[in-house]
Amino acid sequence: AADFASPGTAIRIHPGTYSGDNYVYDLAGTADAPIWLGGVPGEARPIVEGGSEGLKLTRAVYVIVHDLEIRSATSNGINTDDGGAYDDATATHHLLFRDLYIHDIGAGSSEDCLKLSGLRNYQVLDSEFHDCGGSIYGSGIDQVGCHHGLIARNSFPLSFSRLTMRSRA
Fold it and tell me: What is the pLDDT of residue 144?
């Protein structure tokens, strides 16, 4: 569906469990007509499970990612980047991530629940991130080269085992 999306499109994913490694390139909405990618309002969140990355967005513009559960990816839950165009302020901008539940991510290194690289003008709201990264180095939200972001009303609970690992470091 993402290959055919145009400004104002709502890509709705019904409840169920879907495999990870979903790669989306050049998804572009507008300020007046963003592209919506996520669950169906009023239904249970769809689950994206496994793979290296649950969802990867590259060069996304005016996109709202919402109402998804991402779990058990070995690298990152959601990875969003500018496709290496770090000098291009228009490569990836105006993204909203909201009402996400990303957990149990990583295979033992520095993996992240939500990895953001090169974004401009973005928001992460009302989401929960836990057990991110297979070690003490994983992040709930990792931001590299990002500008003008707002992160608010999110939850980052630690499991007992992760809390114990962190206290030993």
Answer: 95
pLDDT digits (tens, 9 = 90+) for 34-45: 999 999 999 999
Category of 168 on φ-ψ map: left (φ > 0), alpha (ψ -120 to 50) or beta: alpha
Note the maximum CA span of the chain: 50
The reported pLDDT for the residue numbered 159 is: 55
> CA angle, corner 9, sides to 88 and 154, nearest 5?
70
Q: What is the dihedral of CA 74, 80, 86, 87, to 10 degrees?
A: 170
- Token pair, residue 113, equals 């629940």
Residues of the chain with confidence (pLDDT) below 50? 160-169
Annotate the chain with DSSP letters as a single string: -GGG--TT-EEEE-SSEEES-EEEE--B--SSSPEEEEEPTTSPPPEEE-SSEEEEEES-EEEEEEEEEEE--SSEEEEEE-TT-TT-TTSSEEEEEEEEEEEEE-SSSS-EEEEEES-EEEEEES-EEEEESSSTT-EEEEEES-EEEEEES-B-PPPHHHHHHHHH-
Confidence (pTM): 0.92
